[in-house]
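Same chain as my last thread, 419 residues:
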Amino acid sequence: MQCTIRLPVRLPVALALAAALATPTLAAGQAAPTDQPRVVAVQVESKDKRLHYLATAQIWADPGDLTPQALLAGPPLADGSGVEAALDGRPFPCTFAKPGKSMGGNTLKFACTTATGTTIRVKYSDQSKKSNREVFASLAASRLLWALGFKTYPIYPLTLDCKDCPEDPVSGNGPRAARSYLAVYSPQFTDPVIVDRSEQDQGWRWGELDKAIDSLPQGELRSRQRQHFDALVLAGVLLQHGDRKPEQQRLACRSQLHLQAGSVRPLGENDEPGRLTVLVENPGATACDEPTVAMQDVGATFGGAGKRTNGSTAKMNLKEWVAKPVFQSKGEPGKVSECRGELTVSMAAGEGSMGNPRIGEAGRLFLVDRLRRLTDDHLRAIFKAARVDQITEDHTAIDAWVEAFKDKVRQIGERTCAP
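reply #2:
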């Protein structure tokens, strides 16, 4: 087995930052213990062991009674970045530190240093017609998934005052000046990923998780996993989440690792103090009691998914979103039929990305129950947090988004699907 894990050429954004920019934290509001190795990955002994983790991973957890105020504010944040001071909309000063081109991906982004001395990564929009709609879509999708009980990662809106900012923050070129942007900030991921190879961005495919659940023995666990997975798949259809490459999904450990279940090795080639590490799991051992699956990148949502992820149509575009029905066919009222979600996945997602997925009745009922718990005030809070009223295009009023969302819920509620 390969025991040393090298940093891949194409890192997940948050892991790249963890390695290069900031001190890891356990979660928003929690500092990492200084006496513990900073394990960012568990490398398991085989593909079968990883598939067992995947099949049994938590898909849904009760989020509790989230109020509209909580959805507007987002999960509590206290990660030392100072960002929490500006979550009420006040301008947030941050000094340009690193161009976005060095961070991978196509989204407009750059790194800047806050007053606390923390260097953070932000995605931004200059509010031009061709600008980055991901800053709106990712916020709305993450707040919705949080409210529904599906695992994703918190995202926070910022009105960013970039100091000493080049004219083009992505390339780093152009004259420097103070510049203002609508931006979003996501704290780095801190739950270690579970992989069976040396790349940290292995992720998981939707079809892979589907088959892994089917491989479980008949019983309560399999029934629960199927219900929750079908509900998650249907939520992805509702969101028009078609940009679903494996690295957009994350298999991670949400419980404390059993370090005695393996050996902790440096992530890189040098065994230097303070470096990020990987836990290489011993054969037959179990390092994680509570694996979980998450959608870690939900920026291409609330639009019309297609074979190519178009930045202006696939991300926070009300006209395109409304035009996409939830199901491929309406079905006859009161009659049971196979339900197929209306979802075109991107060509980049590859095999096993589950375009036009089949939805079982148990999953549909589960999701519609969660959706109906969201009042108009909850929905307004989600879209207000996403600042959809500041997109430079027609049909972006918060109330219009709320009404469109309620129509999607109606479509899900009126359908009856085969088991």
